Amino acid sequence: MRDKLQATLAGDIEVQNLSVPDELKTFFENSPIALALALPDRDHPLALVNRRFVELTGYASSELIGHNCRVLQRDADESEARAKLRAFLDDDLSPNVRTPILNFRKDGTPFVNLLYMSRLRSLAGETRYIFASQFDVSRAQPERLQGYDQELSQTLTRLSPVAAESGVIVEGTLTTIANSAAIIAQAKLTLANLDESSIL
């Protein structure tokens, strides 16, 4: 019975992945930054991830499609960041959210992900997809984070006409991080605390 259910889910996942418009697939694949697209229903399963996302996380796209991005969080105690993300996902009127959150690559290596999420809506106003971008802030220098912010801002600007071709509207604008040096310092402290707790 379980195998049959998994086969059905796999079929649904394949259909979901195919339901992503080709224009969006091409846009994602050509993006220089890590991007993911999730569906708004049930457990917000991933419908699309790009090559940069695969490089960042170490997971193949086939291991992620159909699963919630929560797989990257493992058992880390990130209650504040999780609360922000949950509030965004639960409130359909919330246009976007941005927060650092502790994630883990497939090989178990921790990193602090500066996660940005916004909504892609149909012309009727329904949320069609949850758009997300990821950046490893724990390894960055302040100027790299500023460069990423510029690239993400340009990505959102370029995404709007591409999404419009598919009948989708990009909601929300980039929420900038005021003090990138402080964010990076906090990310490094988070990783240091994680290393320290694993030694004890």
TrEMBL record:
PROSITE patterns: PAS (PS50112)
InterPro entries: PAS, PAS-like_dom_sf
Keywords for this protein: Chromophore, Flavoprotein, FMN, Kinase, Transferase
Entry keyword Phosphoprotein: no
Top-rank lineage group of the source organism: Bacteria
Database matches in Pfam families: PAS_9 (PF13426)
UniProt keyword ATP-binding present: no
PANTHER family per UniProt: PROTEIN TWIN LOV 1
Protein name: Histidine kinase
Organism: Novosphingobium guangzhouense
